[in-house]
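[stage:ingest] chain + small molecule (2'-deoxycytidine-5'-monophosphate)
[stage:ingest] validated
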Amino acid sequence: MEKKKIIVAIDGFSSTGKSTMAKTLARNIGYAYIDTGAMYRAVTLYCLENGLFDGDKVNEAELQQRLTDIRIKFKPSAEGKNETYLNGRNVESEIRSMEVSDKVSIIAAIGFVRRDMVRQQQAMGLKKGIVMDGRDIGTVVFPQAELKIFVTATAAVRAQRRFDELRSKGDTDVTYEEVLHNVTERDRLDSTREESPLRRADDALILDNSHMTISEQNQWLMDQYERIINR
Ligand code: DC
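[stage:predict] done
[stage:export] tokens:
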């Protein structure tokens, strides 16, 4: 008998390692993995490249008109890593820059952008067998998801992880303080915005991974998946 397929929704604060655990689970169980933050980041990059920002203000009328011209796709790289494409161009590394990180919360707070992203995300989950991570997956995108996780860790731990990641990618300019500021500021903006603020779905399991190793959290997530599948 074919194993039943479910939707795994993983939400939580920025830099909690959500994507790492979501990716690992997806690979281990043969599911598709979608990083919805990458979609908001790709729209932000588009706005930066096309002069739609004036400081922290974005030209919303122009963005709304151009939204149908922004095509976001995920394609696996030679190593099997799902990479983000913006209008046919691989932007996987550009969307992780501090410049994009600094502006992405502004884009993610715009209602018409969210509605468009949510529509695309729901279409990706039609056949189930998907692990999706973001901020509103368990609350808005897939409120019916069979497994919902809400990941959290202290801001200091998350800033250190993000700082180490940027350094390992060769970014030597950024300081730990700047990263910590970006992490806490994004938490604030993401949790207080009017449109789909970051919040835990009532039926989501909380995972605080401040003091967990990557392999411990991967195992924990796998156990949760097995529990649902064998129910
Ligand atoms: O997960 P991330 O840091 O790459 O997400 C980038 C930004 O996009 C973050 O500030 C919150 C926002 N986001 C969102 O509002 N909804 C999602 N489903 C995913 C990300």
